[in-house]
Amino acid sequence: MKKVIIVLGFIFLVSISTEAQCAMCRAVLESEEGQTAAQGINDGIVYLMAIPYILVAGIGYFIYRKYNTLKK
């Protein structure tokens, strides 16, 4: 269990630059000069994508913890 926590901590500490725009959004936002709106849209899309994974992982952890405490 300690190894899992270390690996998860390492994954959260390492940041990877991602781009998550659809083709239409990219075409419209590439014409902008400042690129601030494009960066904001990218951040919003990545944020919305990450939330379901975090929720499912949290629920899975609580289920795992519940079944492990019942066996002891």
Describe it for me?
The chain has 72 residues and is an all-alpha fold. The chain has one domain (20-71). Helix content is 78%, strand content 0%. It is elongated and about 60 Å long. The relative contact order is 0.08.
Topology:
Blueprint lengths: L1 H12 L9 H8 L5 H36 L1
What keyword list fits this structure?
single chain, 72 residues, mainly alpha, 3 helices, elongated
Largest sheet: none
Give the end-to-end Cα distance, rounded to a whole number of Å.
16 Å
**Helical content (DSSP H or I, runs of 4+):** over 70%
Number of helices: 3
* Rg value: 18 Å
Shape: elongated
Compute the number of strand runs.
Answer: 0
Q: What's the rounded overall pLDDT mean?
A: 78
Which sequence of SSEs, written as H and E, runs from N to C?
Answer: HHH
Number of domains: 1
The structural class is: mainly alpha
Spans with pLDDT under 50 lasting ≥5 residues? none
**Beta strand %:** under 5%
Summarize the structure.
By secondary structure, the protein is an all-alpha fold.
